[in-house]
Design brief:
heterodimer, A: mainly beta, Immunoglobulin-like, four-stranded antiparallel β-sheet, 1 helix, 9 strands, 15% helix, 41% strand, B: mainly beta, Porin, twelve-stranded antiparallel barrel, 5 helices, 15 strands
């Protein structure tokens, strides 16, 4: 194969790869994009709801948000629900009022293409 | 399709080689023709996503495509007093055949030029590999894999050193994230290390074997934002993973040990279905290269791009 032919094939393959990779697909693993309360933040009012936004749409029936105290005690939460207008947003209400302290949000989700991911992040409530 | 056509081209060109390495090549061709496949793209352990690193292979098993990987450096001083320009353009395709088992094939095209000298062009030997993920610990963000890389002799350009014999490299791969550090060390949690330990065993016993360790140190800005503290940094920054890779090679030649390698600082931009990495390459010895080189790679997680198409052939083994 001549050098020019090789470079031509490689350049064509590069274009294909870039088009392939930059395809703005609505699938793939769902990772945490942002959250309310913010990851690692200190809030001065007790959050009534925990909201997470993922990088991909998720299946709400197989996705969960849990809240724990720094000591590992689970806080009662309502069921997670997706934002009707944005399936990447998942939220769950906090039952009752949180006491001051450090908390950990644990989430696990199933993206619409069936990839399962999970994660956790801290926040603090200091009135 | 490019890769399949390319493989067929190489197979036709190297019919003689095909006969002598029929088993390995037939297995590769069979696997490629058995597309679709794949499932758990990315190297994930708990909150940690290990990126695909450029110089030291990561511990993940995934259906992924590195195309292209491009590197340039000036070689060591040659007999004519030149530091030749060395360029390599390569590609690698990996395919999950089970959620914890992947096979891969890679090759590269080389250019070696120097003023006043005849230029040399040619392909690397075709490399086939298998990798098995045997340990995953989400809490401590650990992945460990083991695999075998076979460099098939006779499939590359003899002018670039292919003497017709193969090299087999059993390798252990590992990755460890530091998300389990105490909260008092929160800003260190995004750090992770990955590495490989391999021994390249030459089929031609007159060629030296090589001990091939490699290690990377990386700091994940995506991890910082999603698991430690969201500093409202620009979105571009939140996708970056600064990394230093150190691939090494130690010759094991009847007690005479030579060694070399590079230190590769750079960064990886990690999107959801693809990533791009670029690194400088700094030689550790004058025999490795002259001055600073550069390497870059575009990498696609195929089972994230076309998940319905790339599913594993079988369950976990």
């Amino acid at each position: 194969m001549s050098k020019s032919m090789t470079l031509r094939i490689i350049s064509q393959a590069m274009v294909i790869a870039i088009l392939f990779g930059s395809h703005t697909s609505a699938v793939a693993h769902a990772f945490l994009d942002n959250a309310t309360p913010k990851v690692g933040s200190v809030v001065t009012a007790p959050p009534k709801i925990i909201r997470i936004q993922l990088t991909q749409r998720v299946e709400v029936a197989f996705s969960h948000i849990h809240l724990f105290t720094a000591g590992g005690q689970e806080i009662v939460m309502g069921p997670a629900a997706a934002d009707p207008s944005d399936q990447t947003v998942l939220s769950a209400p906090v039952a009752g009022t949180l006491a001051a302290g450090q908390y950990e949000v644990r989430w696990d989700v199933l993206s619409v293409d069936t990839h399962r991911t999970n994660g956790h992040f801290p926040f603090s409530y200091q009135p | 399709m490019f890769f399949l056509r390319y493989l067929l081209f190489r197979i036709q060109k190297y019919k003689r080689i095909l006969a002598s390495h029929a088993l390995a090549l037939a297995q590769s061709a069979l696997i490629l023709t058995l597309l679709p496949q794949s499932a758990h793209a990315h190297a994930i352990a708990g909150d940690r996503v290990f990126p695909a690193t450029l110089g030291v292979d990561d511990p993940s098993v995934a259906t992924e495509l590195s195309l292209p990987g491009v590197s340039w450096a000036r070689g060591p001083l040659d007999d004519n007093g030149n530091f030749p320009n060395l360029t390599n353009i390569g590609a690698e395709f990996d395919l999950l055949i089970a959620p914890n088992l992947a096979v891969g094939i890679s090759d590269g095209w080389n250019s070696q030029t120097a003023r006043g000298e005849r230029s040399v062009y040619g392909y690397d030997s075709i490399e086939v590999s298998g990798k098995y993920l045997f340990y995953e610990n989400d809490e401590h963000e650990i992945l460990m894999s083991a695999g075998l890389v076979a460099d098939i002799g006779g499939t590359g350009a003899s002018s670039l050193g292919d003497d017709g014999t193969s090299t087999f490299t059993p390798t252990v791969y590992f990755g460890k994230g530091f998300g389990d550090l105490p909260d008092s060390m929160a800003l260190l949690k995004p750090f992770a290390i990955t590495g490989t330990i391999g021994v390249a065993i030459a089929q031609n016993r007159s060629n030296p074997d090589e001990f091939q360790p490699g290690i990377t140190l990386q700091y994940s800005m995506p991890y910082l934002k999603s698991a430690v503290k969201d500093y409202d940094l620009p979105d571009f920054v939140n996708h970056l993973i600064p990394v230093v890779e150190i691939p090494l090679a130690v010759g094991l030649n009847n007690g005479v040990h030579t060694w070399g390698g590079t230190i590769n600082p750079g960064f990886i931009y990690m999107a959801n279905t693809w990533q791009f990495g670029i690194e400088a390459t700094l030689p550790l010895t004058a025999a490795d290269q002259h001055g600073v080189g550069v390497t870059g790679e575009f990498h696609v997680y195929l089972d994230d791009v076309v998940p319905a198409f790339f599913q594993p052939l079988m369950g976990a083994i």
